[in-house]
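Researcher: Last one for today. Full complex below.
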Amino acid sequence: MLIPRYFFANTFAGFYEYFLTQPHIRRNFQKEEYLWRLDEPLTHVYYVISGVAVATLEHEDGFRKISSFHSSGTIFPVSHQSSFKIEQSIAVTAVSEMETLCFTNEAFLQMLCENRQLMLCTLNWYASYVNLLLYESAHQDYNSSFIKLCNLLYLFSHNSPSGQEGRIDLTQENIAQILTMTRVNAARNLARLRDEKIIIPHRRWIEIIDQQALEAYCSLETLQP
Amino acid sequence: MLIPRYFFANTFAGFYEYFLTQPHIRRNFQKEEYLWRLDEPLTHVYYVISGVAVATLEHEDGFRKISSFHSSGTIFPVSHQSSFKIEQSIAVTAVSEMETLCFTNEAFLQMLCENRQLMLCTLNWYASYVNLLLYESAHQDYNSSFIKLCNLLYLFSHNSPSGQEGRIDLTQENIAQILTMTRVNAARNLARLRDEKIIIPHRRWIEIIDQQALEAYCSLETLQP
DNA sequence: CGACTCATTGACGTAGCTCAAGGTATGTGG
DNA sequence: CCACATACCTTGAGCTACGTCAATGAGTCG
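Model: Here's the assembly. Have a good evening.
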């Protein structure tokens, strides 16, 4: 039974060879470079060979929400035939150097029609993304910011860029942007976890030193059974 | 360019004849009856012929969030091959008397493999649902509860069960459950809109009498261009 | 008419926001 | 290798939106 994940990896890894046989162009990105800027229409799909990208949504009042991270073996976004206003508020940025394969929407839809496994895999990826979003909008919304934070640390300790459990590579600002709270509030809740000897805050990353105590704070919806 | 919708209708209406040729059973529901209870695994898919269902998520502290409404010509949920913990917190209830076709997950996946149009339509429906959820978790989260409410009324005036613009068939409790706020807070914000002569609150429904003034309060992300 | 559900309003407490001042790692150029 | 700049983190004080608790009113139905 799956819990939500913010960090996606290897969802489509098995299709790499297949993708190479299909019409595409290779595109590499430097750290900090945009895969999509704000207002840019989502006209194509990236398959990530290596590196990590972050998807953010910009609110008209200047707030920026981090939605998800996409690493090797994943595609983003997913092709469809409608166009949604909110897509104009999405930006995707390389967190590290990246190698990708770039497909047009049409080419990708064509692949979905021809390759059943790819189609099923795409549905599963959509389901996984919906799961994350439902978790945020229907569950986390009711939790206090302290519980939200504990849940986030727990989920990242299960699925994180570092690969190391107990090491969360996020700044306080990142955390605030994921949880749609202020940096100050994130800092205060982290201070509480530090005072309770559950984490050690470092510069740009956080060390979990008492996983059990952390889990005890998490909401039931969050915990891996 | 599409704005979010809470109320889904006619997404799959064109497939009704096709669905009838596929293995299914007819199931009808009384008002208030469950299509799914809490903890019940999502082992099949419903196509709604008539009536309306509401999907809710239950938080462990007793809060109940209304996620979406599903009316004639829609299917819910979508088949996939994973199983997510949060699915156990989903309940779907008939708001009115309903007629449905019920498919097993396997049968539905088989149809997706065989019918390209259905597959494309399913992807579009997923995209539309993701759009709603992104809107909630990345945009509405930053708005004050007053703006949230205005946005909701605007969106429902574009897509609502009644079909009549200017008529919103929701109780204050429903509104609070959609916006994850308390009934009291929803009532206070409605009182403000009433005092400003933008709405007339009735029992179990709300009348919008000044659509322009309402739109002036809505966030940009919400408004149909 | 009584019972029920839904809506209104007040009093009060607090979580989380804003504004603000400082502290501490990391990187850069002289 | 030190001086300095920059990014990141910490902490305090005050404000307010929203939650909680509670009492009352107003439609609807048997």
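Chain A has two domains: 7-138, 143-217. Residues 171-173, 183-184, 187-188, 190-191, 201, 203-204 of chain A lie near DNA strand D (CB under 10 Å from a C1').
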